[in-house]
Amino acid sequence: MSNELLLYNSLNRRKEVFEPLHAGHVGLYVCGPTVYSDVHLGNCRTFTSFDIIYRYLLHKGYKVRYVRNITDVGHLTDEGEDKMSKGARLAKLEPMEVAQRYTVGFHDMMQAFNNIPPNIEPRATGHIIEQIEMVQQILANGLAYEANGSVYFDVEAFNNKNDNSYGKLSGRKIDELMAESRELKAQSDKKHPSDFAIWMKAGEDHILRWNSPWGEGFPGWHLECSAMSTKYLGEEFDIHGGGNDLKFPHHENEIAQNAGSCGCGGARYWLHTNMLLMNGRKMSKSDGNTITPQQLFTGESPHVTDSYSPMVLRFFMLQTHYRSTMDLTDDALQAAKKGYSRLMEAWANLQGLEGKGGAQNGTVGKELEATLAAAYGEMDDDFNTPKALAKVFELVSRINALKGGQLSLNEVSPDTMTAVKAGLKTLLFDVFGLKEEGADAGAEGETLSKVMDLVLDLRAQARAEKNWGMSDKMRDGLKDAGIVVKDGKEGTEWTVG
Ligand code: AMP
Ligand code: ZN
Questions:
Q1: Phi, psi (deg, nearest 5) at residue 45
Q2: Best mutation site among 46, 70, 254, 326 for ligand 1, i.e. most ligand atoms within 8 A of its Cβ?
Q3: Rounded-to-integer distance, Cα 158 and Cα 478, Å
């Protein structure tokens, strides 16, 4: 494996050299979505960050088993209702209909962002037996107790047995914990407020329920990830990821469950992404500070003045390190749109360049090689995409200068030019996961493009003649055909979808 890979391990709060458990192999587990509503852009940020991490591990030559679950049971609202059941009740649907609808929507969105599907995508409801077995193991180890049909993890007993290690990921003390917990608040059967349910008795009107040794019930939310990561990656595995809002209680409890069931460590490296903000504030549905990816694709939201394609959004995400908060503003998106097209233009320009120097590079050739190597070096430093992208833009300037004649191709050896083309291709498309937009549309795309030029010409003519009825009819007809037309500052744009 070339060059060391450093990653920031939340468990130890420092950057560490990554050393997989089994040479050449990586087990990667990422907490997936709770499929009771559409994924929002914040979720997409987290999943795209882990997609880039996955892609980079593949690029480093590791054989990666990437597991990302689907939460379709057990994740409760603050009022204690199962999120799936609540979604179903509101929409008058079977919970599994709700799960299916939003799982399909989630997959579509992941595809739009060009995220590679995981190798295994287990569902919580498909692993009830494994979860019951884990509860039994924890009970057998004396680290849980049954009360009134529910089973609770005994945090105090666990702490006494494990050097007070509960709270080591989130850095919290047991007494401080309950206030911030996303757990059901009024669990009166608990011995201690920081105990948490690993199995819950189902109330009479609870729809999602299974038979268990403790009566009809359902698993606690945190249990699924412990059970499924153990099943598919082993009792100890390499990397566990998720958004940093999951550190507590979800990940803290996962660690406790893994240790409490088999006495094993679970994940060795914990990676956490930071949150997406909008206009400086946490994205939130309740105060209207929210936007869906679809609204960004079409530009139909009061928060934006323009439409932004999935690849512009991906480029935008690359500009911020995954451990920093990312602020979504219209200005920043405008800048990303320009940046992405400047990058793709330079990529196209590069294809027409040939190194004309001798076998030995001049200064320019050496700089091209060094800058590309530095970009990869930044990826080795905890997947630092903004710094890698900055190096790529140094290359962009040089490529444009070579094309414009300000720098000389005589200073670049043919071999270097070939290597730069290959290295940049890998970085942009395999590692960053960018796509040339419209590039996969092929001949059909070209035909559509020509037809759309004609249609938009006719529409412009109708507008010039103040024939608003015709202009609107054309826009609505195109919308029915799945084509969204948007009149912006720089003319009329159209997107499919
Ligand atoms: P959920 O469906 O709520 O369980 O969330 C799925 C993933 O998205 C988790 O890893 C969350 O940490 C992450 N996530 C939720 N909100 C945001 C946000 N605003 N920014 C970034 N990631 C988020
Ligand atoms: Zn999880």
A1: -60, -50
A2: 46
A3: 62
